[in-house]
Amino acid sequence: MKLKLLFIFTSLFFWQAEAQVNQKICIAFYNQENLFDTIDTPHKDDAEFLPNGTYAWTSERYYNKLNNMSTVIAAINNGKGPDFLGMCEVENDIAVNGLIQTLAQKKLAYDMIWFDSKDERGIDNALIYKKEYVKKSSGFIFDINPDSIGGSITRGILMADFTLKNNSRLVILVNHWPSRRGGESESEAKRIYVAKRVKAICDSIQKRDAKAHILLMGDFNDHPDNTSIVQHLKSKPSVKETGKTDFYNPMFALLKEGKGSYNHRGQWNFLDQFMLNQNLVAKQSKLNYVPASAQAFKADWMLETEEKYKGNPKRTFGGKKYLNGYSDHLPIYLYLQLN
Q: 3-state class of 261 per DSSP?
């Protein structure tokens, strides 16, 4: 009888230990479409998003925005919220903390990694995460030299560096590359420069730590098949093609299916993308991509119902008209297996 009980308890122990380690973690990215607070920030061009500004950005509208964005975020990962969420177009730590507090009201607890970037408008990158999978975390921002992109002062590349509970290292780089304002080809050189900067950062990380799992995410303002992504980040459409210093881009396959995170003149595409280094797609790795898990998150209540724009993401503003929506982008997400 004692041996039988010992066997049962031992089996339960190992089953529980395995269950705790072999878990899927949800990673997401979401362009917040101007998540601004209502306070005038010195040395930042945030005048449009003040109570007396162009968008009449009152406290009521700000709290509506926090509630709307947190509603989308909470719905991801089968209603549990993502475990790690990268964001762009957040004004500052006040706005990020406001979002975290609103998510807390929905029983979702997050910590954040954020740095004030040099962007003239004050739209930054940030990352929030649940602590349950994390042993240690740190962050850094890589600024972009304005002289190298024609004098434009743009947001930096946010690095979030995690040691997870199985001792694997996950490095996430959150990106928001220069826009296509002025024309796609006219502005392309700016994005190519930032792509080279990102690739150099990743190569440096991998040179020092060959086992690092590196995940790129963000609004790249380029599509999966553009020069900056394919030639300079060495992004590949299949795992088999992904070499040691390349990245696998699951958005290629989704694009072929007619999916996207952003709709421009009736055409879906992916400005928002994930790219995973070889360690993240290797089957023997302690942390690896769950095949075909990358998707754009879309629910009917997030979309426009007006006939002209039907099916598009429902924005906060359409031009200057207040729509009380979410974002002009859909969030994207994927799953990693923690082994």
A: coil
- In 3D, which of 134, 135, 153 has the Cα closest to residue 143? 153
Per residue in 95-140, pLDDT (tens digit) is 999 999 999 999 999 999 999 999 988 899 999 999 999 999 999 9
Strand pairing of 247-248 and 235-236?
parallel
Give the count of domains, the chain.
Answer: 1
Question: In terms of residue numbers, what domain contains 310?
Answer: 21-338
Specify the CATH number for the domain of residue 61. Answer: 3.60.10.10
Q: For the full predicted model, state whether its pTM sits above 0.85.
A: yes
pLDDT in tens, 255-292: 999 999 999 989 999 999 999 999 999 989 999 999 99
Structure tokens at 281: 């797609």
Structural domain contains residue 148:
yes
Residue 14 lies in a domain: no
Rounded mean pLDDT of the chain?
Answer: 93
